[in-house]
């Protein structure tokens, strides 16, 4: 999917696409969404360690509520993703 390795987010996106659960929380559709900021930050760190493209792809899977909660923290994760990208470029050179 999207040229990315299969990850937890892949399963969440597939369940959301099938209408089974919320994309961020895994709660049943139609239920009240709760955003777990700690969990979101953990996922952001994982994706940032994969690089900018992975972090951006993950961001696009989030609901609007989750994006609002994460926005104040994203610059740190973006910086980490850029470092990962630079290391990958250096390793390829």
Task: Describe the 3D structure.
There is one protein chain. With 93 residues, this protein is mainly α. It has one domain (8-92). The protein is built from 5 helices and no strands. It is globular and about 45 Å long.
Gyration radius, in Å: 14 Å
Structural class assignment: mainly alpha
Number of domains: 1
Q: What share of the residues does DSSP label as strand, in percent?
A: under 5%
Q: What distance lies between the first and last C-alpha atoms, to the nearest angstrom? A: 28 Å
> Secondary-structure element sequence?
HHHHH
Shape: globular
Characteristics of this structure?
single chain, about 90 residues, mainly alpha, 5 helices, about 60% helix, globular
What's this model, at a glance?
With 93 residues, the protein is an all-alpha fold. The chain has helices at 8-17, 37-48, 52-59, 64-70, 74-92.
Question: How are the SSEs placed, and which strands pair?
Answer:
Layout: H1 8-17, H2 37-48, H3 52-59, H4 64-70, H5 74-92
Helix pairs in contact: 2-3, 2-5
